[in-house]
Design brief:
The chain is built from four helices and two strands. With 102 residues, the protein is of the alpha+beta class. The termini are far apart.
């Protein structure tokens, strides 16, 4: 029997496949989410006003892991974004979201 999905955690959405809910359950139960949140929070403290892409250059997580944990920290009112940061290094020319500790 499949365990109940983690609705409301922000890690998996109600319409996501079961594998997404299993992955969400694993990242929480294993402590990975908490460890990554600690890393990202420390990185934002040391380098305020950067995008997730730029923050990833200052820690051992990739841009996508950083972005996911920033969303988790924002949901807990620990960090916030204000305006935009530097232009994207992905060649889009668009500015990214800049992050600060609340």
């Amino acid at each position: 029997m499949t365990p109940p999905p983690l609705y409301g955690t922000g890690l998996a959405h109600s319409g996501d496949p079961d594998t997404s809910h299993e992955a969400a359950q694993h990242i929480v139960a294993s402590g990975t989410q908490g460890r990554q949140m600690t890393i990202v929070l420390d990185t934002v403290r040391r380098h305020p006003g950067l995008t997730s892409l730029a923050l990833a250059d200052h820690c051992d997580l990739d841009r996508y892991q950083v972005a996911r944990r920033l969303a988790d920290l924002k949901a807990r009112n620990v960090v916030e974004h204000r305006g935009t940061g530097e232009q994207s290094m992905l060649g889009t020319g668009r500015c990214g979201m800049a992050w600060w500790v609340r």
